[in-house]
Amino acid sequence: MPGPGPEGYDAAPFVPEKADLRRLREAAAGCRGCPLYRDATQTVFGTGEPSARVVLVGEQPGDQEDRRGEPFVGPAGGVLKRALAEAGIDPAEAYVTNAVKHFKFERQERGKRRIHKAPGLREISACKPWLASELRLIDPEVVVALGATAGKSLLGPSFRVTQQRGVPLPLPVPDGAGEGGQEGEGAGALVATIHPSAVLRADAAARAEAYAGLVSDLGVAARLLRG
């Protein structure tokens, strides 16, 4: 099995060439492209049909996703499915994945609870070859970047979700060669929005507004799909 890159942060040696989604998923289970695999339960790869017209890209697996091996099966996933339905996108027709495929966390002091920790730029960059391969195989009409990590993986480290959310952007064609690396613009569109977990983190007074904003941004993606 190939080893990691010189700094221990490169998934590219583990990504098989000319593989379909099933083979990619199998190969990703053995990825050692960054140190996150050491503590995570398993790789959490994307789910959905290769014919999906829309791809939803989140940040990384959470605690429940790490244990179950599927993306967006925790509380944030429930928010996302409800928002998609309200926006007019059938969740069953979307391919769902994350920019980073392993759960990054820290242990709560004197407890067993695992606290989410945002992935860094090196981890985002290391995992990009997997996301690039998914997007090349699916060739979606619309990609929705859910939160800052997804946006940075697709558009580069200067991405700011507060500035670029809710408007159609050209979809980069990722080359899988590091943070922000791309071959140019594809035929599809990208729409950025907040991560559904931001709705859950908002206080009671702001939660309804945060959720409405998520639905509104997803509505932009739905209109693009309707043409």
From TrEMBL:
Protein name per UniProt: Type-4 uracil-DNA glycosylase
Keywords: 4Fe-4S, DNA damage, DNA repair, Hydrolase, Iron, Iron-sulfur, Metal-binding
Gene Ontology molecular functions: 4 iron, 4 sulfur cluster binding; deaminated base DNA N-glycosylase activity; metal ion binding
SUPFAM superfamilies, per database record: Uracil-DNA glycosylase-like
Superkingdom in the source lineage: Bacteria
Record domain Uracil-DNA glycosylase-like: where: 45-219
GO biological process terms on file: DNA repair
Gene3D superfamilies membership: Uracil-DNA glycosylase-like domain
Family that this chain belongs to: Belongs to the uracil-DNA glycosylase (UDG) superfamily. Type 4 (UDGa) family.
Provenance organism: Streptosporangium nondiastaticum
